[in-house]
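Review form for a predicted model. The reviewer records the input and the model, then writes brief findings.
Reviewer: anonymous (R2)
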Amino acid sequence: MKRTQFRMETYNLSDPRYRRMFVIFMMSTAGLFLVLGVFFVFQTESNHNSQLGKVTSNITSRTLLQVMSDNVPYLQEMIHRPGSEQMVSRLFFEVMTSFDPQDPRTFLSNEIPLFALFDTDIDTASKDVTFSDVPIESSPPANLEEQVMNQIKKQEQTENKPPSTTVTSPKVKRVFIYHSHFSESYIPELDQSKGMKANDANKNITLVGKHLAEDLAKMGIGSVASHVPYPYQGAYNASRKTVVQALKEYDHLMYLIDIHRDSQRRKKTTITIKGKTYARLAFVVGGASKHYTDNLKLARSMYKDINKIAPGLVRGVFIKPRTMGTNGEYNQSLSKGCILVEIGGIDNNFQEVYRSTDILAKVLRERISDAIPVQK
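Model under review:
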């Protein structure tokens, strides 16, 4: 029987060839770690856009707790812990399929169009609010999206561009208002012969932002309301650039408010208070934001303060985690003072919406301690 012998090679680093090889190897290793480090930092800062985040977002909090409990014994007391084989198989199943075996909604969301939009947690809500009342989005019709894109291109090519912002006095700006889904509008305010339903390139939610800015100005709060249009696809990435620019331009901003219109119907988005109808509000907090805790605390506080003035006006505070169907970040990683508010639904009118906006402005004014009402 032939015996195989192994021989250990030795390398003399005094040899220039081996020294060169060793230096190249060390530099390559350092370069690899540098690239990986930059990559993961970028993923952290841009988690709302990362493919890795989309995959890991399929893992439920319960499964994550089970994985973490191996190293943090205290967490074992918080869950009914399955065996390791069951945990591994469940983790693999959720990552690969986006299904949570204990939540039937995750099965339906992959089979029923728009059902994924209901992948929302109700944090705080009025007594009459149920799961069917959570805010939902609806994309604009294709012909409007094409019209918007043409409008954006036309503005980019025009030297004398129309003003993209409404800037109010005083000089110090505390509030920045914008609209990621700028074409959202209200059916009673539109000519339905155009076939745009609840969307319009001009008569839309940006008028609500302008009204809020004017309200704040009367109360002595300087603000900037952006009317920049964005395509529906990739809207939050596009509006993020606007917000970043505003943060650079205005040093004293306290609140960044993204105003939307809900797609729920009138019964769920309207309330009568002292004989007048109001468009109900809803606050949405992105569960994937790095400032999630602070923005959730802010939304809860706004909910409490507004409903103290007008009971039931705010439907609730809703948390949207990042999933295969939702953004889950909504630019809220840019500040601890981010507010995404839905004002009314598709069946409300501007009069009802403006009444609610007036109360929103009043609560904001109370929160900004150094605001001085403008003298008439």
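Findings: The domain at 142-367 is CATH 3.40.630 (Aminopeptidase).
Further findings: Strands lie at 121-125, 165-167, 173-178, 222-226, 255-260, 270-273, 276-279, 281-286, 314-320, 338-343.
Recommendation: see findings above.
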